[in-house]
Specification:
Layout (H helix, E strand, L loop, with lengths): L2 H34 L13 E4 L2 E2 L9 E3 L2 E5 H7 L5 E3 L4 E5 L4 E5 L4 E4 L2 E4 L5 E3 L2 E5 L9 E6 L4 E6 L4 E5 L4 E4 L8 E5 L4 E4 L9 E2 L2 E5 L5 E5 L7 E4 L12 E6 L20 E4 L2 E3 L7 E3 L2 H13 L3 E2 L2 E3 L4 H8 L2 H18 L3 E5 L8 H18 L2 E6 L14 H7 L2 E5 L17 H12 L9 E6 L1 E8 L2 E8 L3 H4 L7 E3 L4 E8 L2 E6 L3 H14 L3 E5 L8 H9 L3
Parallel strand pairs: 1-13, 22-23, 22-37, 23-26, 24-27, 27-28, 28-29, 29-30, 30-31, 31-37
Antiparallel strand pairs: 1-2, 3-4, 4-11, 5-6, 6-7, 7-8, 8-9, 10-11, 12-13, 14-17, 14-21, 15-16, 17-19, 18-19, 19-20, 24-25, 32-33, 32-36, 34-35, 35-36
Length: 569
């Protein structure tokens, strides 16, 4: 091949190679553009006030714009509900907003420059205002209520909110750096920080510094969120750690109600040691009929001795407060915020007076239309008890029953707010039943536990299973039915000698039937085996524990069963 031909061939090859290189570069550039172009898109909202809550910019999720007037920050009631208090409430009767947090109950009358915090009146720089049929809360006045720090950064029109019970970490920049929108060099710069400038380190869901591939997420002093190389920061320093709420009792709850009539004094229990329990609930308190929140105190000096006995044995004391089935008295209190507060203040006073560890609310027989207002009572009571370190448990019946005994409870809200919700798993066939049946069949109890955890969305770790230390004897004769309550300890006395017992594996109970004087007697036994079967549900579902109605009705052997099954000494 001639030199000219070789040159021509080399020229063609060079052009071909050049084209390959150009195409490769274009493909690479296209790849880079496709991969990194989204990182350069400006997604910031610049035409309204930005709200950054615990290092998350929630501006795009706001239902209403934040308003700033005369130095006061206003946030809509809907957004308060979304981000701070799911149970914020407009009280029509007193034209006020009621909001709750971990340890605070705050009320604020529309148009007034005062709020009432846990019963104490406080002057505020703003008031609740109404715009376009929306209530706006003077959020900057509520930092103590919600336990937050609030800052407004005028240069970027940004509000930062930091919860005081969450981990808060700072670091100083070791050099001048660009803050990137994403954890990569190929990303839009959202802010710059200078050497020795302090930034807030964003925490992840596990409460640790949010680090991605060597990039750490930060918040600058202008409220901007982004990433810098981890090695461009000095050592971080923890301003505060997450405040963990410590449970009063580790392990399973094992509570026994200790009933005594309001006409008697508290029992003397000194010298008694009840195996397998860690909580006692004496019936110290009841509502006063037509008392507008007044509580009948049946504890007195004997009650103080009872508390001393319980504490000396290592038991927590959560006395019950019963409404005594005073349906109209209960309705009057529930329908009036001021009366609810009077009742709550009376409860607080009793806790202080008797050195109590908690309270068990036992309100039964209520109007179903008061369901949400009873929930309001629980919502407003809980922060006040939190402030004192006292536990709140609430007794409820099985779901899907009658209006005034079952439909009067919002189990989801109660279970969400209270420390514990107690399912009274008895009276399946009660005294008013038209047919004979078991008091507490295993299958019925299990089905209702499924309802609590399913349709009612109650967390398993909050559900206490209330079990009976009694059953019922049914007498059938000529179409008539009579029923008698029989304590567990007395069952053997009502069953004639030699009568056979049949195990019902569905109910997990022995069934006994016999005829005396022409009367057919039927009884479903509550004994160690039936109780043990129901106790097994606690470990199966990982429930909070068990409660027992009531002390003194049990057989002696039952405490060993309870102790072994729940692991409570």
């Amino acid at each position: 091949m001639s030199r000219k031909a070789r040159r021509a061939e080399e020229k063609v090859k060079g052009k071909f190679l050049y084209k390959i290189i150009v195409v490769a570069i274009l493909v690479w550039l296209a790849f880079l553009i496709l991969k990194y172009a989204p990182n350069y898109v400006n997604t910031e909202i610049s035409d309204k006030t930005n709200l950054v809550i615990n290092n998350s910019n929630v501006t795009g999720d706001l239902k209403k714009d934040v308003i700033i007037e005369n130095g006061v920050i206003y946030v809509s009631m809907e957004d308060i509900e979304n981000f701070f208090d799911p149970y914020i409430y407009y009280d029509e009767k007193y034209n006020q907003i009621i909001t709750t947090s971990e340890n605070q109950v705050t009320s604020m009358v529309i148009g007034e420059n005062t709020m009432v915090n846990n019963g104490t009146s406080v002057q505020t720089s703003g008031t609740v205002i109404e715009r376009d049929d929306t209530y706006y809360i003077p959020f900057s006045s509520f930092k103590d209520t919600y336990n937050v720090d609030i800052s407004y950064i005028e240069s970027t029109n940004t509000i930062t909110v930091d919860s005081k019970d969450r981990r808060y970490v700072l670091a100083d920049s070791a050099k001048n750096s660009n803050v990137k929108a994403y954890p990569t060099t190929f990303s839009r710069t959202v802010d710059t920080i200078e050497e020795k400038e302090t930034v807030t380190i964003v925490q992840n869901a596990e409460g640790k510094n949010n680090v991605v591939d060597g990039w750490v997420e930060v918040r600058t002093d202008t409220g901007k969120l982004g990433y810098v190389k981890e090695n461009t920061l000095g050592d971080d320093y923890v301003v505060r750690e997450t405040i963990e709420t410590k449970k009063q009792i580790d392990g399973k709850i094992s509570m026994v109600w200790d009933y005594y009539s309001e006409y008697y004094t508290a029992p003397d229990r000194f010298g008694e040691d009840i195996q397998g329990i860690n909580v006692v609930s004496p019936t110290f308190f009841t509502l006063v009929d037509e008392g507008k929140g007044e509580i009948y105190d049946n504890a007195g000096e004997a009650g103080k001795q009872y508390v001393e006995w319980a504490h000396s044995n290592g038991y927590m004391v959560w006395p019950s407060i019963s409404n005594n089935s005073y349906i109209e008295t209960t309705a009057e209190i529930m329908r009036d915020y001021n009366l609810r507060q009077d009742l709550i203040e009376n409860i607080i006073s009793l806790i202080v007076q008797y050195d109590l560890d908690g309270i068990n609310i036992d309100f039964e027989y209520m109007h179903d239309e008061d369901k949400d207002l009873f929930s309001r009572f629980i919502i407003e009571l809980k922060p006040r008890l939190n402030e004192m370190g006292a536990v709140l448990s609430v007794d409820v019946t099985a779901p899907d029953g009658s209006e005034e005994w079952s439909l009067c409870f919002d189990r989801h809200v109660i279970g969400d707010v209270a420390d514990y919700i107690v399912f009274m798993a008895y009276d399946q066939y009660g005294n008013s039943s038209a047919v004979a049946g078991t008091n507490s069949g295993y299958d019925w109890v299990k089905a209702n536990v499924d309802k609590f955890l399913g349709q009612e969305e109650v967390k398993a770790e909050k559900l206490i299973l209330g079990l009976p230390f009694y059953t019922r004897l049914w007498e059938e004769s000529n179409g008539n039915l009579e029923v008698f309550t029989v304590d567990m300890k007395d069952i053997e006395e009502v069953i004639p000698e030699g009568v056979s017992r049949t195990w019902d594996d569905t109910l997990k109970q022995y069934y006994v039937e016999f005829v005396e004087d022409g009367i057919t007697n039927k009884i479903w036994l509550e004994d160690a085996e039936s109780i043990q079967a129901k106790l097994s549900l606690i470990n199966e579902y990982n429930l909070a524990g068990a409660a027992y109605w009531e002390y003194g009705r049990e057989s002696d052997s039952i405490w060993t069963v309870i102790s072994e099954d729940l692991g409570v000494e």
